[in-house]
Structure formats: structure tokens, C-alpha cells
Amino acid sequence: MHGPASPGWLMVALCAATGAYCLLRMRGTTGEQRRAAGAEALMGFGMAVMAVPSTAFTPPGWAWAGYAAVFGAAVLHALWAARRGAHHLHHLMGAAAMVYMALVMASAPGHHHGGSGSGVPLVTGALLAYFAGYVLLTGARLVPAAAVAAGPAPPGWADRPELARACRLSMAMAMVAMLLTM
């Protein structure tokens, strides 16, 4: 997204690290957890690429159509998978937000976003409300999971639900930051 360079690079690092961890989670899980980790890895890496500051690299105009196509396919996949579980609705919202941001960026390729009034304020506001609510809800769910000190031996790193929640939380916070620059 277009904004100050330092926060942009921090967001790139956060999203890339989250995407890398989700790839590692794919190796340690099977079935539905593996598919969810794959969708989250795609989201993390896609957000990392989109968050590269425009002072370092401005993608060509056709790249935004590519983003929209990739995440449009992710929307369809999440919509299909939502038949099996509610968690896929969050993947659907994330992919839809990425399509929306790509379309907004494609419609104003030479403009820097961040208070310029581009995009559809109603859609941006609805996405901001969803992701801000998701951040609050996931953060509240994460606290009790991390506060458990005693109990059975901890599962393997890929099977720890609090780590998966932390990944989703960091990507939702990054999504809020990216939407605020629209």
C-alpha cells in the first residue's frame, strides 16, 4: 500500500513472517487444518507483496488485475469451502478485501492512497468494521489460551491453536492498517 516507508516495511516483514509460518504449519497438519494454513499463507504473502512501499517499487498497472484474479479465485475457493465450516467465511472476507483493494489500486494507478478519498467509503468502512471486530474477538480468545500454564504436555508447534490464532490476529491487524490507507 502507499504510505510511509518504515511502517510499510514493518508490515511487509510481519505479513511475510506470518505467511512463512503458515507454510510451516501446512507441513505439520493434515486435512482441513492444512487447507486453512494454505489459505492463510497465500493471504500473508499476498499482503506482504501488496504492502511494499511505493517508494521502493510501484507495480505495473496489469499487476493489480493479477492480484484481483488470484484473490478472486481464493474467494471462490473459500465460498466453496464455507459449506463445510464457518472459519472459511473469514478466509472469504480476507480474500474479498484483497480483491477490493486490488481493484481500488487498479482504478487509481498513479495516485498515492492514504486519505485521498479513493475507493468506496461504504465498502472500506464495512471491511474495517469486520476486521477490527475480528481483531478484538481473536485477541480476547488468544489471552486465555496463552494464560494456561499447567496441563498436559504441549502439542507440536503445528498443532498449537494459539499460534494459529496469533497468525490470524496479525494478518487481521495488518488488514486494518492496509484498509486505513485506502
Written account of the structure:
The chain has 182 residues and is mainly alpha-helical. The chain has one domain (5-180). Helices cover 73% and strands 0% of the residues. It contains 6 helices and no strands. The chain has helices at residues 5-28, 31-50, 61-81, 87-107, 121-147, 161-180. Helix 1 runs antiparallel to helix 2, helix 2 packs parallel to helix 6 and helix 5 packs antiparallel against helix 6 (161-180). The longest helix has 27 residues, at 121-147.
Total strands = 0
What is the terminal-to-terminal distance?
8 Å
In round numbers, the mean pLDDT is 82
Number of domains: 1
Which structural category do the helix and sheet elements fall into? mainly alpha
What portion of residues is helical?
A: over 70%
Taking the sheet with the most strands, its summary is:
none
Low-confidence stretches: 111-117
Number of helices: 6
Radius of gyration using CA atoms only: 17 Å
Shape: globular
Strand content: under 5%
- Order of helical and strand elements: HHHHHH
